[in-house]
Amino acid sequence: MTTASETDRIERSILIKAPREHVWRALSNAEQFGVWFGADMAGQTFKPGQRARGRMTMEGMEHIFLDVVLDRIEPQDLLSFHWHPYPMDQTIDYTQEQPTLVTFTLKDAPGQGILLTVVESGFDQIPQHRRRQAFEMHEGGWEFQLKNVERYVSQ
User: Fold this and answer.
1) In CATH, what is the architecture of 2-154?
2) What is the pLDDT of residues 73-107, one digit of tens each?
3) Residue 21 belongs to what H/E stretch?
4) Cα–chain-centroid distance for residue 78?
5) CA dihedral defined by 15, 19, 21, 27, rounded to 10 degrees?
6) Sign of the CA dihedral running 153, 143, 1, 130
7) DSSP string spanning 123-146?
């Protein structure tokens, strides 16, 4: 797994030894995405311009929703969405904040599998009082989630 980050963006990559179609399906199918990400996305679909929302299923996070608005879908290559990072406080209306952009890209790694990269950008637009914590939580969160998608696809 590789790592690169600045104050405004987080970038993480992982090499997955699986067919491209399997990795793509795990990203682009909302219900499969929810399984490895830890959210109940039953009945949801990923389509550009549309919102997909599901309750988190990880212990201690059941009060939070995965809530995304799909941006771009380029089959087998790229999927991106906007969301509000680290929305832990139920008393805050995060819709008043500028969302970050999450972009997944797939690249062939000949003889090795698929290089999956996730970039989350736009942290500099988050209100100052919660920017650092959101950034730090997502730095570790993306490492965790890339390992989850790798496990899911490898099953």
Assistant:
1) 2-Layer Sandwich (3.30)
2) 999 999 999 999 887 777 888 888 999 999 999 99
3) helix 20-28
4) 12
5) -30
6) positive
7) GGGS-HHHHHHHHHHHHHHHHHHH
